[in-house]
Amino acid sequence: MSSTSQKHTNFVSEPMGDKAVTDLAGIGEVLGRRLDSKGFDKAYVVLGQFLVLKKNRELFIDWLKDVAGANSKQATDCYQCLHDWCEEFL
């Protein structure tokens, strides 16, 4: 597995709880505001979309690019963060 950011490590190390969408790896303030404006205000709401898309890498990355204007690296980082979290907790 490739090296992960501290943000990724922190997110995957504990239950989701009520974390902000900006706690997800790859999601900073700008993307966080864009997601929030579309109703994706919490990390668990983005997780829900990830699960609706059946944890499919390509579909999730395309969705995040379309909804929030994420670039490929941001979308991939967010996908990997949610994927690793699911491996740990689901």
Written account of the structure:
The chain has 5 helices and no strands. The two termini are 20 Å apart. Helices cover 62% and strands 0% of the residues. It has a single domain (6-89), classed as Orthogonal Bundle (DNA polymerase, domain 1). It has helices at residues 6-12, 29-37, 43-52, 57-68, 72-89. Helix 4 packs across helix 5. By secondary structure, it is an all-alpha fold. The longest helix has 18 residues, at 72-89.
Summarize the structure.
By secondary structure, the protein is mainly alpha-helical. 62% of the residues lie in helices and 0% in strands.
Task: Summarize the SSE layout with pairings.
Elements: H1 6-12, H2 29-37, H3 43-52, H4 57-68, H5 72-89
Helix pairs in contact: 1-5, 4-5
Pfam families: SAM_BAF
Organism: Limulus polyphemus
Protein name: Barrier-to-autointegration factor-like
Look at the structure and name the CATH superfamily. Answer: Barrier-to-autointegration factor, BAF
| Tally of DSSP helical segments | 5
Number of strands: 0
Task: Compute the separation of the termini in Å.
Answer: 20 Å
Query: What's the main sheet like?
Result: none
Order of helices and strands: HHHHH
| Overall geometry | globular
What fold name stands as the CATH topology?
A: DNA polymerase, domain 1
Q: Can you tell me the number of structural domains?
A: 1
What CATH first level would be assigned?
Answer: Mainly Alpha
Average pLDDT metric: 96
How many whole angstroms does the radius of gyration measure?
A: 12 Å
Organism: Limulus polyphemus
Protein name: Barrier-to-autointegration factor-like
Keywords: Nucleus
Subcellular location: Nucleus
